[in-house]
Write a sequence for this structure.
């Protein structure tokens, strides 16, 4: 918010541009989102289609979570990781920077967050799978 306000103030108040400052807003947002995805999964903050899920018991929820993480989350995270590697490698090969004059010369660093995000998401997905499996095992022990 503060950086965006500074960009607006510079542009409209002083008729001055600050490309690096503008790009820093994008970099900060991208970093927060990509590094926060796994944490959001841990905290149960991702959007889910909750038609009946909230009405189900813990074991049924765990079964749905287990299937969803195995069938969707891990394959998607793996695909993102695998497909992003050449993209990131090409960016590192040329130490890609901003195409804008005066922009941030570190796009290659920002792009490196893509496979890191996928890896963190997969690790958290595995933790969620173990948590769901534990709930399902405990339910069997109670029977």
């Amino acid at each position: 918010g503060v950086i965006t306000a500074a960009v607006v103030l510079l542009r409209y108040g002083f008729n001055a541009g600050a490309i690096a400052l503008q790009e820093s807003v994008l970099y900060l947002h991208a970093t927060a989102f990509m590094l926060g995805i796994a944490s959001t999964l841990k905290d149960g903050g991702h959007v889910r289609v909750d038609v009946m899920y909230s009405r189900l018991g813990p074991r049924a929820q765990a079964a749905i979570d287990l299937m969803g993480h195995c069938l969707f989350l891990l394959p998607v995270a793996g695909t993102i990781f695998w497909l992003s590697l050449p993209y990131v490698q090409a960016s590192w090969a040329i130490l890609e920077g901003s195409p804008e004059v005066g922009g941030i010369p570190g796009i290659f660093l920002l792009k490196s967050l893509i496979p890191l995000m996928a890896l963190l998401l997969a690790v958290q997905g595995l933790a969620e799978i173990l948590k769901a499996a534990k709930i399902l095992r405990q339910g069997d022990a109670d029977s």
User: Anything to note?
Assistant: The mean pLDDT is 89. The helical segments are 2-14, 19-42, 58-93, 107-111, 113-142. Residues 58-93 form the longest helix (36 residues).
